[in-house]
Amino acid sequence: MRFESPRPRNDEERILPLINVVFLLLIFFMVAGRLAASDPFHIEPPRSASGAAAEVRDMLVLVGADGRLALDGAVVDEATLEGAVAERLVHETTAEVRLKADGGAEAVRVVEVMELLREAGVERLKLLTVPVKGP
Hints:
By secondary structure, the protein is α/β, with parallel strands linked by helices. It has 3 helices and 7 strands.
């Protein structure tokens, strides 16, 4: 006795499994996807005894261990950083800048970046650190 598989009665029945697979893939990528953009290079921030949590604000400047700079996830040079920050401060006068420097970055480089940001018009700058766990 041989049974033949039933043939789809119309085009909608043929495309329904494809739509189901597409929706399952969409749900998979929504669940497994990343929710936040990662930094363009690895940063190991210095430790701090203060326990204040960092607030999420407008601009984030990164200083890598090798002195590279990034603004809001994009690697930039000093001139581009200064120009972009100055331009944003013209439009967003209450904007705050967070500086996240690698613990291995030279202190002189971090101070240079802080001075560059001050020259760009930054009045409120937060240096992000990781709190040290209690004794």
